[in-house]
Amino acid sequence: MDSLFDSAAEEAHRGQEPLAVRMRPRSLDEVLGQRHLLGPGTPLRRLVESEAPMSLFLWGPPGTGKTTLAYVVAGVTKRRFVEVSAVSAGVKEVRAAIDQARRELGMTGRQTVLFVDEVHRFNKAQQDALLPAVENRWVTFIGATTENPFFSVISPLLSRSLLLTLESLSEGDIRAVLERAVADERGLGGRVTLRPEALDHLVRLAGGDARRSLTYLEAAALLDDDITVEVVERAVDKAAVRYDRQGDQHYDVISAFIKSMRGSDADAALHYLARMVEAGEDPRFIARRIVIFASEDVGMADPTCLQVAVAAAQAVEFIGLPEGRINLAHAVIHCALAPKSNAVVKAIGAASDDVRRGLIGQVPGHLRDAHYAGAAKLGHGDGYKYPHDFEHGLVRQEYAPRELRERRYYEPTRHGAEAAVAERWARIRDFLRKP
Fold first, then answer.
1. What is the mean pLDDT of residues 409-421?
2. What is the pLDDT of residue 243?
3. Are the CB atoms for 307 and 296 separated by under 8 Å?
4. Which of 61, 169, 218, 381 lies at a 20 to 30 A Cα distance from 151?
5. Which residues form the AAA+ ATPase domain (predicted)?
6. First-last CA distance in the chain
7. What is the percent of the chain with per-residue pLDDT over 70, rounded to a whole number?
8. What kind of fold does domain 353-433 have according to CATH?
9. Is residue 150 helix, strand or coil?
């Protein structure tokens, strides 16, 4: 009688679980995305197909399936699943979970998957507590993290584990997740209609995060059985961004974004940045445009601008969205408010034009490579003056081919830091070109 009651209670609770939990895959074949980790012979496949314990770190943005993969490994292999949250658990809880796993292994032979979510939040003492269990294979340890484990995990633990990197889900993967949730009995069981334009909108809002897409879908389904864009907007309290990533809006918005930074209007640039982020534009695309802008429109007027832009691009790769939008905003404000100069892009453009027109000339003999056998017989390097041997590190000699002696490419502006560069370059150029 008790078992019947327990089963009924468990079933009732299952129906109240969030949609993202109910739709969690039950096998590796049901997992969408992460194809590079799920093929034949991959560590995950080997872990599922063998009985040997293994320790893994799953590193990737939110909503990419880290917890899902841990559940699948435990479910398919019939191992006990024990989850410890690094946010709330301490050394005592970790050791208790390991002790229980050891007892279970000794008494029944059943292995345990010890899953630590947000493992990067564990301090050194907490991570040290995991080492004996990993080293002695008392548990199959799986740690999930959104931060680079090379910076957040102690070396002894990392060296004893496999590191698997998860990628944000593609639009096609998110679309498949949503369509499955609408049709599957574990999900909405076909009880709602999801309009195509609403599906597209949910895919955009998800930003590669499967859990977010299912949370938004569930919220919309609670409001109406006929899910339109308007229903989705009400459900997530977010206005639809009219933005076609393959159409005119894509090009119009990125054009306005660049021109607003070029015009030093930080507010307008931030508006267009937010518009792209909220519409689900690939943040790496935005970051690449900022990096280009830093050299094309700021250049030597503020040499730190490129450093900030590259750092923002790396940060986006490192932490993903939504937090990555802060790094992008940082770079946008820096670029928009920096003094402007297009001297760098004009310089390389002019040099490239001459090369394409055939104005090339011979490399002066004293600048040619003199390191290989026989170079000395050809006179390569003869007469080269080593600048470090001269005052100020400067020495007058021919550098450009003779035909290009009078050509000028870099013409610095007097904006920002480039004013000092202009003065120095003028003095150096006069010194080098003086007969």
1. 87
2. 54
3. no
4. 169
5. 52-168
6. 105
7. 92
8. post-AAA+ oligomerization domain-like (1.10.3710)
9. helix
The helix/strand/coil state of 163 is strand
Q: How far apart (Å, rounded) are the C-alpha atoms in residues 260 and 271?
A: 10
**Domain 171-236: which topology?**
Helicase, Ruva Protein; domain 3 (1.10.8)
The span from the CA of 157 to the CA of 173, in Å, is: 32
What is the average pLDDT value for the chain, to the nearest integer?
84
Residue 40's pLDDT is what?
A: 79
Separation CA 179–CA 171 (nearest Å): 12
CA distances from 348 to 185, 208, 270, 294, 409 (A): 61, 38, 29, 15, 7
Amino acid type, 275: R
**How, if at all, do strands 193-194 and 226-227 pair?**
parallel
pTM for this entry: 0.54
C-alpha to C-alpha distance for 336 and 99, rounded to whole angstroms? 57
Q: What span, in angstroms and rounded, lies between the C-alpha atoms of 162 and 43?
A: 8
Type of residue numbered 127: Q
**Distance between CA atoms of 110 and 138, rounded to whole angstroms?**
10
Amino acid at residue number 217: L
Q: Can you give the residue ranges of every domain in the chain?
A: 34-165, 171-236, 248-337, 353-433
* Distance of alpha carbon 135 from alpha carbon 156, whole angstroms: 10
Of 79-93, 101-115, 231-245, where does mean pLDDT reach its minimum?
Answer: 231-245
Radius of gyration (Cα) for the chain, nearest Å? 30
Assigned token pair, 94: 């970790």
DSSP 8-state symbol, 186: T
37's enclosing H/E stretch is helix 35-38
**Mapping DSSP to helix (H, G, I), strand (E, B) and coil, where does residue 49 land?**
helix
User: Closest Cα to residue 183, out of 171, 194, 172?
Assistant: 194
Distance CA 316, CA 295 (A): 19
Give the angle 64-61-31 at the CA atoms, nearest 5°.
Answer: 10
Helix axes 171-183, 196-206, angle to 10 degrees: 130
* Three-class secondary structure of residue 413 per DSSP: coil
Structure tokens at 172: 């096609």
135/327 Cα distance (integer angstroms)? 38
CATH code: domain 34-165 is 3.40.50.300
pLDDT tens track for 177-200: 999 999 999 999 999 999 999 999
User: Which CATH code of 3.40.190.10, 3.80.10.10, 1.20.272.10, 3.30.450.20 fits the domain covering 248-337?
Assistant: 1.20.272.10
Rounded to whole angstroms, the Cα distance separating 388 from 3 reads 86
DSSP annotation of 30 reads G
